[in-house]
Every structure is written in C-alpha cells, then in structure tokens.
Amino acid sequence: MKMKGRSIFTYDVYAPTTVTTMLRPRRQEGQSIIQEGFNIEPSVPFSEYTDIYGNPCQRTILPVGKVTITTEVQAQVSATKSIPNPPPTFMLVGDLPDEVMHYILPSRYCESDLHEINMLVMNIAGNLTPGYEQVEAIRTWIHQNIKYQYGVTDSSTTALDVARNRIGVCRDFTHLAIALCRNLCIPARMTVGYLDRLKVMDLHAWFDVYIGGEWYTFDAVQEKTNGYRIEIAHGRDAADVAMVTQYGNATLQSLHVETELLEPEPAG
C-alpha cells in the first residue's frame, strides 16, 4: 500500500535557535520511500547525520521571526505485521543479540527497575506465558486503564507518573508499556511516525518488542494493533526520538499533520 504523510511545524523564534530534527523517514525493510521533501521557510542551510539508532537527523539554526518546517513523504508500506500462530516466545537475556541489549535497560522516561513498576507488571502479566502473552496483556491493560487526554502531561512525564495518574497521550502510553516490558526482561523500544487511523490526527508513538528473534509492533492507544505506518525514528524513549529538539528561545505555535492511503498501482 502507498501511504502519504505530511507535517507542518510553525514556530515563533525570538533569538537565533539551534535545532536538531527527526522528520525524514527511515529507509528500512518493509518501508520503501518513493519520494520525500524537507523544507524550512525562510530558507536556511541545514546539515544531516545519522544517529546511533540509524535515524536520519537534520541540524540547523532557525532565524528570528516566524519559521515553518514542512516535511512530506510517500512510501510503500505493509500493514502492521501480524503475530504468527503459535505466537513468538520469550528469549532469555543470554540469547539476545548484542544490539538489542540496551533495550532491556532503564532509560530517561522508562524507569523499568523500580519496585512500583515491578508490582504493577506482576499484577498484569506475572502469571502469563513469558513473551507475546505478557506483552499483549500489558498493551491491553494500558488501553483499558489509562485515559487518553491531551494537556495533562508534558515533556517531564515518566512511565511511573503515568502508572500513578492513569492519564496521558500516546507518548505516555508507550513509555509505560516499555517500562513494564523491560521489567520482564523483554526488549522494548519507542517508535514514532505516521499512522493512518487516528481519531485526532497527529504524529504518533507506539512500541516495538523483540520476541522470538524479531521486532513486533504493539500500540496501546488502539483497541487492537493494526493499520499502516510510516516509521520516522526509533530509540529507547522520547529522549532519543524527539521530532524537534531546540537549544534556544523559540515557541511552537502549531503542528498540522495529515496522512493518506493511496491505492496501489495496478500490475503491468
């Protein structure tokens, strides 16, 4: 399926402000980029680099005044990978690949080593078969017990805050899910990008877990994980995958996001 995504960030900049962004899509298996665009108005030069997770990043200095950053992508993507039958099983830590190991450690927003997190995950999934059953139980519990609401959490909100307050947005749902999975020694990472089926359109966050030797997508915001996605970045938590990180005096005034599914072109 072909899918389009578009986002427009509008800033008021009060002093020249250095920013790094993650707004261009990843090129990876299962996601073929057909075309993309990245534009800053007024035009300023920017450089690009790849971070330690393989995410494409941009870096520039925003000038004083009103600045818009527009990114567009059209990609060939597959539907969210379904879980095989029988479902993938838990992997012992000793059997995990080296590059996966840091996804079982606590991180800035996912305090997976805390006793309170352990008590919660034991209550949710402690008696289940290790692996997929536990992850799906965590995902379902968050969907059913955490209220989705804008404006009640911010950039300092952690998984522990969400566990206690039971409210947040996709970023918060994802942080809690990651912390709970990691407490069970199941590698989990945060992924951000476009999802075609959101009630309120926005850039979206979900979590991937490594079970049975592969990464699988889980989305606690949805009643059931499904849909088409364009992945922009993944990392340990929001500290690694912030769409825009600024080092100066600028205020985000608006963010407009669009997605569209396009019919695949006929064969021949």
TrEMBL record:
One GO BP: proteolysis
Domain Transglutaminase-like, chain residue ranges per copy: 162-222
InterPro entries (alphabetical): Papain-like_cys_pep_sf (IPR038765), Transglutaminase-like (IPR002931)
Protease among keywords: yes
Top-rank taxon: Bacteria
GO molecular function: peptidase activity
Keywords of this entry: Hydrolase, Protease
Protein's recorded name: Transglutaminase-like enzyme, putative cysteine protease
